[in-house]
Amino acid sequence: MSKRVIERLKAQFGERILETHDYRGDDTAVIAPGDWLEVATFLKHDGECAMNQFVDLTAVDFPEREPELPRFDVVLHLRSLSSGYQRVRLKARLAENQGIASLIKVWAGADWAERECFDMFGIKFEGHPDLRRVLLYEEFVGHPLRKDYPIDRTQPLIPYRQVDGLTKLPPFGQDEGQPFGRIQWQQRLDGRDNQVSPAIAVQLGQKRALSDSSAHEGEGAKE
Amino acid sequence: MEPIEDELSEEGALELPTEPMRLNMGPSHPAMHGTIRMVLDLDGETVKGVDIQPGYLHRGFEKSCERGTWQQVFPYADRLNYVSPMLNNNGYASAVEKFLGIKVPERCEYYRVILGELARICDHLTCNGAGAMELGAFTPFLWMLKLRDFIWDILEEETGARMTHSFSRIGGMAKPPTENLERNVLDLIPKFEKTIYECERAVLRNRIFLDRVEGVGKLSKDRAMELGVTGVMLRSTGIDYDVRKSCPYSIYDRLDFEVPVGHQGDNYDRFVCRMEEMRQSLKIIRQCIQQMPKDGPVSVTDVRVMLPEKPAVYNTIEGTIAHFKLVMEGIKVPAGEVYSFSEAGNGELGFYLVSDGSGTPYRVRCRPPCWFNLNSAHEMIIGGMIADIIPTFGSVNMIGGECDR
């Protein structure tokens, strides 16, 4: 961690750095969510800070400190690989349903970190091109790392997804391959039908493939 | 024999019309470790787009940590990177120690480094062995896993478990090193050197292997930094960032070792870097064996952090109370937040801990190296062939337990 970065931030942004602390040597600056992108961009491009490595982005939920302070802390860790491995932690306080700017244009590594943060806390990152759940599934109800997530309840069962415009290609139609249980065993035992399996029956000419457009009509006529 | 006249090429390559195809790879594909799904957009065999979908092994690590005491996180931490659990144990223990502001005894530091480096060798052996196997070289895989088993024997003798050790404690280790540690490790060295030498001979001069890894899955320096890539993947691009060297923790500043770096960040560089890192790990272990104090405690004696000795618990009221308080209420960690990081098998393993002053963690955020390494795989895969996904994904060394947590 580096005092220098904090000093630089204070010199540049003045009052807009709301708080700083260095508990156990981890230098931290708290800023308003509105300044998030600007400060981050500055940290990366400023020659003295040069925070070129994205380390981590996460959030912490403090529901009890409402209404004095907003509920979430969004926490960003950064490191400079070119300037003495100095590190800094940036924090912003965020109310529920309040968005914050996405950092994906500054550090590409923010992509999955922000998606995870959205998944676990429901924080909306404005400007993220593909903000969807990453660890959990789309139909999951709620955001599990929030403190008020009902941990003693189970998630609802969901039906199979229906994807529009997705139909199976011809080789995987109903009548091809070696299907299981398609033989009419009663008919076969009665001696009326000696077919081995639909696919072989098609090859032997005993039966026409269902994918033939005329096959359905033919069968319909037989019945 | 006369060569066949190559008339086809004169007519020009057969121009078959292709149309884009969407292909689902995984999660049940064996090379996807059963935990990653890739939705590929293909043009012929070239990958035009990929959507990597993790999460099939998500068990709620971070949420689970919020219900027990600080000590009860260790078994969960074991199951993050289950190929090198000792490194996770050490990483988490040192994070809480940083929070508490305590320093563990020197003997403990050496012991942690020895076990951790053994775990790192296991990690790299598994990655390189499996990577070679996926390209058809089955023999090095068996040799490497055999060697890994010898290392697991040592770890079993020391910790009592082959894989999920849960052996570190906040403020020390569960047990002092056994008498056989030194002999076991020294016995391992010739086996190790023979295996590594033979595997390199078998693989690194093999045309089939080299064609599949050289120049495949490249990652540039700048992109690697921006993407938060760490560990071998970052070093293979030519950046010499190793937490052990750059921000020395524990006793790494007293040890003499080198950080291997690559040139262009392709699969070959990653493979060779891992091979060399194993040698360096062994060098570290050898020095630690020599330097480690033969006697002395392996844990702090503060009863607010470590359980007291059993005779004290059974015979004195102070010991009983201390034991009871630690087990029922847990270690009281002061309110605040810390970020502590160490070099794990795949890169920088960070723990961002938040405490509200009680005996239960308020938030345990694990910064998994795999998560960011896998995110960068998008760039390495797009533009390549579909068959190149296998070696590239293999050399990323995604470990499901750590990536999905």
Account of the 3D structure:
The complex is a heterodimer of chains A (223) and B (405). With 223 residues, chain A is of the alpha/beta class. Chain A folds into 2 domains: 3-126, NADH:ubiquinone oxidoreductase Nqo5 subunit (Beta Polymerase, domain 2); 173-222, no CATH class. Helix content of chain A is 23%, strand content 17%. Chain A contains 6 helices and 7 strands. Chain A has helices at 3-13, 36-45, 110-121, 185-189, 198-203, 215-222; strands at residues 17-21, 28-31, 53-61, 72-79, 87-94, 100-101, 125-126. The N and C termini of chain A lie far apart (83 Å). Mean pLDDT of chain A is 79; it is low at 170-177 and 215-223. Chain B is mainly alpha-helical and 405 residues long. Chain B has a single domain (71-404), classed as Cytochrome-c3 Hydrogenase, chain B (Orthogonal Bundle). Chain B has 17 helices and 8 strands. A 3-stranded antiparallel β-sheet of chain B has the order 1-2-3. In chain B, strands 6-7-8 form a 3-stranded antiparallel β-sheet. In chain B, a hairpin with a 2-residue loop joins strand 2 and strand 3 (46-53). In chain B, helix 5 runs antiparallel to helix 16 (389-396). The radius of gyration of chain B is 24 Å and the shape is globular. Chain B starts with 6 loop residues before the first helix and ends with a helix. At the A-B interface, strand 3 and helix 3 of A face helix 9, strand 6, strand 7, strand 8 and helix 15 of B.
Q: Point out poorly predicted stretches of chain A.
A: 170-177, 215-223
Instruction: Give the total of domains of chain B.
Output: 1
Q: Main β-sheet of chain B: number of strands, strand sense, barrel status?
A: 3 strands, antiparallel
Number of helices of chain B: 17
Class by helix and strand content of chain B? mainly alpha
CATH superfamily of chain B: Cytochrome-c3 Hydrogenase, chain B
Strand content of chain B: 5-15%
List keywords for this structure.
heterodimer, A: 223 residues, alpha/beta, Beta Polymerase, domain 2, 2 domains, two-stranded parallel sheet, elongated, disordered C terminus, B: 405 residues, mainly alpha, three-stranded antiparallel beta sheet, 8 strands, globular
